């Protein structure tokens, strides 16, 4: 608790799981490779449309990013948190800092890099969403940081990940 009676960001050894978040978020399962167009997705549908393929690619990128961040010592607090104002891909704790993380996944750099996808407008929206998340969870961390993880998944070869801390 802070001096004003507001809970502070948890710093104990184990992750704090907000209500509705399963402990399976601690160890996201990483698929061996992004889903090809002809195999069923987790929902059982064959991702035959471009929208289905992009959705599966995004899920892969988020799982890949979450695993990387956990390996770096962060604690996953929430995933795909939504409100009427938008969505936060990943909410994590890095020591006593709350991290609001946007994950951008691409299969090529044809339309720019993954990191170019976050504009100042998007960063401002992430700051507002982070404030909403904190208010809902009644936490007062020492600091809040917005990170961006870009995942490039080429047709051949291993995915490449870029993590930029403090983008906004």
Task: Explain what the structure shows.
The chain is an alpha+beta fold and 168 residues long. The chain has a single domain, classed as 3-Layer(aba) Sandwich (Trna Endonuclease, Chain: A, domain 1), CATH 3.40.1350.10. 24% of the residues lie in helices and 26% in strands. The chain is built from two helices and five strands, in the order αβββαββ. It has a five-stranded mixed beta sheet, with helices on both faces. Residues 10-32 and 36-40 have low confidence and may be disordered.
Give a nutshell description of this structure.
The protein is an alpha+beta fold and 168 residues long. Helices cover 24% and strands 26% of the residues.
């Amino acid at each position: 608790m802070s001096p004003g009676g507001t809970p502070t960001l948890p710093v104990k050894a184990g992750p704090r799981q907000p209500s509705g978040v399963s402990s399976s978020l601690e160890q996201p399962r990483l698929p061996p490779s992004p889903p090809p167009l002809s195999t069923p997705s987790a929902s059982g549908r064959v991702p035959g449309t471009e929208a289905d393929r992009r959705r599966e690619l995004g899920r892969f990128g988020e799982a890949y990013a979450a695993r990387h961040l956990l390996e770096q010592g962060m604690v996953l607090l929430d995933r795909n948190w939504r409100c009427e104002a938008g969505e936060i891909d990943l909410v994590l704790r890095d020591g006593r800092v709350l991290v609001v993380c946007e994950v951008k996944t691409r299969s090529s750099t044809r339309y720019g890099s993954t990191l170019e996808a976050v504009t100042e407008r998007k960063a401002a929206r992430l700051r507002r969403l982070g404030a909403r998340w904190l208010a809902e969870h009644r936490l007062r961390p020492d600091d809040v940081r917005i990170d961006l993880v870009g995942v490039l998944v080429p047709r051949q070869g291993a995915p490449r990940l870029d993590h930029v801390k403090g983008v906004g």
